[in-house]
Amino acid sequence: MEKNKQNCPHGHGPMQLATTSHKINFRELELTCPVEQYICRECGLELATTKQAGAVQRMLADTYREKKGLLTSQEIKTRRKDLAMTQKELADSMSVGIASIKRWEGGIIQTPGMDKLLRQAFWPRQREASFTGNRPFYIERIKLSLVMFNNLYNHDLLAGDNRLLYSGKLLWYADMTAYRELGRSITGATYAALPMGPQLNNYRELVPDILKSDENTAEPLSPEEKNIIKRVYERFPGKTDAYNASHQEVIWKNKRTGEIIPYLESSELMKM
Ligand SMILES: [Zn+2]
Asked: Where along the chain do its domains lie?
């Protein structure tokens, strides 16, 4: 026989099933959540069964995710099924264990880093956009940006041996900031985490092409893009300032050598 009746432990007889709105502190947020539980009309005692408490926990987790811009349990499950992926296939595509997928679909909240991986697995085109900052790669725009930096610094950044060692960081800050503020990078370049800091992916091969390219054929920089480049310069007036700052950036530090730094992570970059 199903136990669907709850008696008040204070001897007031059967309790009523009711759904009431509760304010609950969850992590750092105060969430309002409908809670179904038994209430005693006599003394006001509220009692939740294990099942009811579990439902509340799942609801809190999903409300929290919505507020934090994370995929909810249901969204993860639905998207995975839309793509006809098993939990194992999704786990493999993300290089995580199947237990993680089960936990997230069951209500445990994924970290922001794992949420990014989930989105990349679910929306590969978004992943691509995140590698180029939502703009096709334009080598002439790299040159154009470097020419503007040259004028600001009053110094030829592309002269000598180090070439992109320092200026690569300036480009990185400019592109990432443009993506964060304007939704698009300036150059469409992809950046990798290298031991000497964030750098244009395949920069060695790119240097001769950058030097040869004609910046006058590039789509001109918009006022907003120019403003960003100017702010990067003002933030890093010294030759090694951007280089040093980039080595403090978590989104570089948390990558393996050679790993791409997605533009989606630009929100975590220091503000210009
Ligand atoms: Zn009672």
From this structure: 16-68, 73-122, 132-268
The topology (CATH level 3) of 16-68 is Ubiquitin-like (UB roll) (3.10.20)
264 alpha carbon to ligand 1 midpoint, in Å? 53
Along the 272 residues of the chain, how does pLDDT read in single tens digits? 335 678 999 999 999 999 888 888 888 888 888 888 999 999 999 998 888 888 888 888 988 998 888 999 999 999 999 888 999 999 998 889 999 999 999 889 999 889 988 988 888 766 667 888 888 899 999 999 999 999 999 988 877 766 788 899 999 999 999 999 998 999 999 999 999 999 999 888 888 899 899 999 999 999 999 999 999 999 999 989 999 999 999 999 999 898 899 998 998 999 98
15 CA distance to ligand 1 middle (Å): 8
- C-alpha 38 – ligand 1 centre gap (Å): 10
Q: pTM higher than 0.90, yes or no?
A: no
Q: How far is the CA of 5 from the centre of ligand 1 (A)?
A: 14
In sequence order, the 6+-apart residues with CB closer than 8 A to the CB of 223 are none
Q: Does domain 73-122 have CATH number 1.25.40?
A: no
> Ligand 1 centre from 17 Cα, in Å?
13
User: DSSP secondary structure string, 35-74?
Assistant: EEEEE-TTT--EE--HHHHHHHHHHHHHHHHHHHTPPPHH
Cα-to-centroid distance, 36 and ligand 1 (Å): 17
